[in-house]
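Quarterly update, task 2.4: 5'-O-[(L-methionyl)-sulphamoyl]adenosine-bound model.
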Amino acid sequence: MTAYITTPIYYVNAEPHIGHAYTTIVADTYSRFRRLCGDRARFQTGTDEHGEKIAEAAAREGISAAAYADKISAMFRTTWPILACEPDNFIRTTDAKHIETVQRALQAVYDRGDIYFDSYTGLYCRGCERFLTEKELVDGLCPDHRSAPREIAEQNYFFRMSKYQDRLIEHIKNNPDLITPERYRNEVLSFLSEPLEDLCISRPKSRLTWGIELPFDANFVTYVWFDALINYLSGLGYPDDAKFAEFWPVAEHLIAKDILKPHAIYWPTMLMSLGLPLYKKLHVHGYWNNEDAKMSKSLGNVVRPGDLARAYGLDPFRYFALREMSFGLDASFSREAIIARCNSDLSNDLGNLFSRSLSMVKKYAELTVPVPTEVVPVPAIDAELRRTALDMLAAYRQGMADFRFHRALQAVWELVGQANKYIVVVEPWALAKDPKQRPRLDTVLYNLCEALRLLTLVLRPVMPQSAVKMADALGYAPDDAAISSLAVGGAWGVLAAGQKLRDCPALFPRLELVKDEPISGEEIAGKVAIPPATDGLDIAQFRDFDIRVVTITAAERVKKSDKLLRLIVRAPEERVIVSGIGQRYAPEDLVGCQVVAVCNLKPAKLMGITSQGMILTAKDSVNGRERLALVTVTTPTADGASIS
Ligand code: MSP
């Protein structure tokens, strides 16, 4: 089977943000899932570069529209690899091939008598780049852009969309899966219950030159949607390329709810006029808000995907995006949400399962998958693990195929939970003490490794980099069918006994001290110049400082101070340090953290408490506001380790 999944082509009037990233991650995950199913998949994304908004943004920067489009398009193209998104085609509406295809399509529709010239007065929303009907307005404003549309009167070309209204309604009714989730299908049908107006498809060149010239009238350029939607065809080399014949019949478009109408109404009627079959599916998702507020450049709260991947790791970010949003509904992004989700699901549940299981195979079976013994009847707890694994596979396949990623991942975490429970119930460490229990211990370890293999297989489309690490720990080459093909690996008992496992570093370190790092649009400043070093310290003087790694074992606020915390640290002997980090860190977040302290300062009394040292912090400022960050170590380190 084949699959063709597309994202919208993004306007180049703004940098990529979490909303664009979500759609692109979904498309990437889906194409990887289809490959996991053994299908040939093509994934296309790109940039939409013509139109008023872009011409204006370029003018604001004082550069040509083409140069501006080049710059922002490159930002999109280079963002996707940072998120492990690997499109097969990145299309730009300024590509010569695309322009040629748009002109050819316009001519075909024109020749068919579906385009006419007329004068028109309408309410134009620049944000949507289309005319709105009175009914669409809320309090006289565009509901998406909260701005009053402009009344425009001019002569233009129109596409006879209304001619296809009945055919479109019939098609949607006959194909209940065409537009999903169902609420969006209903929305479209309800819109179609009113007479459809024809679609304005041109702009006079006197008003806009940054577009594609109409092949039948050089005084006009085509208006943004007629140009943009055609990308789904031009990216396949329509009409002559073999890719078109192979992939168009299985086209699945992925969009957010903001551009439902162009995709569910304009595009199918355009395809009808072109005499082409309609796309197979339209998947519509909701909107990401930032801490419940709408994201916008002017609010300065746009979340940049590259920043998130760097702060939290690219796989945790992909996982979070897919797990947190119920496909079709809106979701809210916050640092707290991503940290909580990743710490609980990834570090605690999955990461711990992996490291506990591997360390037991190391300790009890020399890092080699043992031979399981089938006993009849199968112990209930083993049967439960196996059943959960098989149920998970079924729910996962269904969820991924239906774009219910949060459901698919919920099912995967059922298996993670069951495997963790398995360890608690069977207590392998107790079995290891009794030589007579050796066959049972071997079976238990085998079962755990097999659960890990299945998790590696199904998580591959979602967290491609971690899956490779997991596969490596389980002794598999990255392309081994057992962890890269659902047909081969999607069953219980595929793992071969005797396989050598490998040590694996922690897969998902806990995210703890990154709480307050800037994620977007903030001015960050540190010290600017290093003073001349001629009068600098002698290295011996530096060595006089006894600087060590210490672990915070207890923390509490100092009474009557909002800044000071009383910390007990292990260095390795215990000591009390009073530190002025109370406005930045909550005491409960610090316990267990390793930080760096100067330990040979003269004891000092702060608010009546003797402090035996000083915790090191870094200081910078965000938007002029001072900010602290604890200095820490990147891997767990012995208490008292010296810093040099
Ligand atoms: N250029 C048109 C699309 C033409 S497709 C033939 C366009 N571009 S856009 O840059 O505005 O991108 C809109 C798409 O970006 C949405 O449909 C969605 O895929 C993604 N998102 C942008 N902001 C978003 C959120 N805040 N939340 C979720 N996705 C959003 O429209």
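Highlight for this quarter: The two ends are 59 Å apart (CA to CA).
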